[in-house]
Design goal:
alpha/beta; Rossmann fold; six-stranded mixed beta sheet; 19 helices; 17 strands; globular
């Protein structure tokens, strides 16, 4: 007997022709468990095969399993008080909005395998992606056009080849071009004061903080200003945007000499960009710093040196916790011998390598490293065990942050308790997580979201500090 369960759902009855139907793939809910709430007044359709995939993924201690469980909990809370009939006819996604702007959520039941031939059925229907495409094509033939939302590029290609519109999930992509991502610094050609005088005459008072008209500064830089942004010129003048209020900008007056003579645990910056990053990290008023830079630009050694300086020398923090996002880390850590720190050490080898570099010139480097290892509260933690905890007076270093989704970066940063500083390191050119790109990375998302935060800053490093070989490889390979 031929049955088509899709025919029992009329998605067009309660909606106007202007509203669209979006069908979500599993990876969208893994990427953002709250994705169903981001389609405004439109319909959100969830194939039941997606629920089956979430059910298989939710078991375990990995980040993937944790995100799958969060997605299931979000769906459960949405349909908690709904009857089967209400779920069948559609549940308002935003019940507090005016009628017509509430949106609808439905679950799409699968079609019988003996339904009439479609383009998708020429694919292997043992594969869930193909079955989802097939079900959506059957629905589209009976109703209005359906848009498949998936972060899987290959699935989008297959869907379009079969006549189904497919899109990436863009709700949390705050920039469309990675070149427009803020670097945290801006260069002014010539002299800063001369250029500013041409727009609005200035009389610097000689104090470290100088107030300037916001309109004049925006005209000078040709764009938006935000707290903790550095501006420098070709005459070794550097300033940091300290505060913006009531049409005025407070500039902290610095210079290249001041920044380049900083020192943290014996480390001095090699260039102006490292100096800017170090200045932000060492500032007790800054709670969050995001550093994006190419491999070998000095991210990890800067982070470690500043962490040791602030924790051991200045006693601002009680402990240093280092963690990182690595594909397979949570799945593979259980197979390694020893304690959690022993298991994490191979994954966080960059920190131990830089610890050696920081003490290479000591009279007895082995003794120095042993002292740090035994007396400094430096802990290596698995990313999955950092989630769900609350850290007080902790210097938290999140390495490889470019491999985190916006949802994951949020769950980590919200772990920060009183007196905690969070430092996120990453290279947007080296993303290993499937379905993530430079514009959708959690590091990009966080940098843009915190752009206006007075106690946060982001810096893009330039150059490669490892060796001439590494510099040439970074540029040419």
């Amino acid at each position: 007997m031929q049955t088509n369960l899709i025919k029992n759902i009329n998605l067009g009855e309660a909606m106007t022709s202007e509203r669209k139907i979006y069908a979500l793939d599993t990876n969208v809910l893994i990427h953002d468990p709250n994705a169903i709430f981001n389609f405004e007044e439109h319909q959100v359709l969830l194939p039941i095969l997606v629920l089956e995939e979430l059910d298989k993924l939710k078991v375990g201690n990995s980040n993937l399993a944790a995100d799958a469980r969060q997605a299931v909990r979000t769906l459960a809370s949405l349909i908690a008080d709904s009857s089967a009939k209400e779920l069948h006819s559609g549940i308002p996604v935003h019940p507090n909005e005016p009628e017509g702007e509430q949106g609808l959520f439905r679950i799409l039941m699968p079609a019988a395998l003996d339904t009439p031939d479609t383009k998708a059925q020429k694919l292997d229907l043992k594969i869930n992606d193909n079955r989802i495409i097939n079900d959506l094509l059957l629905l589209q033939a009976e109703q209005k056009p359906v848009i498949l939302v998936t972060k899987d590029i290959n699935m989008r290609i297959k869907a379009k080849a079969c006549g189904l519109d497919a899109q990436d999930y863009h709700s949390d992509q705050l920039v469309t071009d990675i070149n427009r991502l803020s670097t945290g610094h801006m260069e002014i050609e010539g002299s800063f004061w001369q250029k500013l005088d041409e727009i609005e005459p200035q009389q610097p008072s000689g104090e470290s903080i100088h107030w300037v008209s916001l309109a004049a500064m925006q005209s000078l830089v040709g764009g938006r200003l935000y707290p903790n942004q550095f501006i420098y010129d070709q005459c070794e003048f550097v300033t940091r945007v300290k505060e913006i209020r009531e049409g005025q900008v407070a500039l902290e007056l610095l210079n290249t000499g001041i920044l380049m003579h900083q020192r943290a645990w014996g480390l001095v910056p090699r260039d102006l960009f490292q100096a800017m990053a170090m200045y932000l990290i060492l500032d007790p008023e800054i709670d969050l710093v995001a550093i994006n830079g190419a491999a070998g630009s000095g991210k990890t050694i800067l982070a470690l040196a500043c962490a040791l300086e602030l924790t051991v020398e200045q006693k601002q923090f009680k402990r240093i916790i280092a963690t990182r996002s690595t594909r397979g880390l949570d799945e593979d850590i259980g197979f390694l011998p020893g304690t959690e720190t022993d298991k994490m050490t191979p994954w966080l080898g960059a920190f131990t390598d830089n610890l050696e570099a920081l003490h290479a010139e000591d009279y007895d480097p082995n003794s120095s490293e042993h002292y740090v290892g035994t007396n400094v509260p430096l802990h290596f933690k698995s990313l999955n065990f950092v989630r769900g905890r609350s850290f007080q007076q902790t210097f938290l270093i999140i390495d490889e942050a470019q491999n985190l989704t916006p949802h994951q970066i949020k769950t980590l940063i919200t772990r920060a308790g009183q007196g905690t500083k969070v430092l996120c390191l990453g290279n947007l050119a080296q993303i290993d997580t499937p379905y993530l790109g430079a514009t959708s990375s959690g590091l990009t998302y966080m940098s843009e979201r915190f752009r206006g935060f007075t106690h946060g800053g982001a810096i893009g490093l330039k150059g490669v500090a490892r060796s001439r070989l590494a510099a040439y490889a970074e540029e040419h390979l």
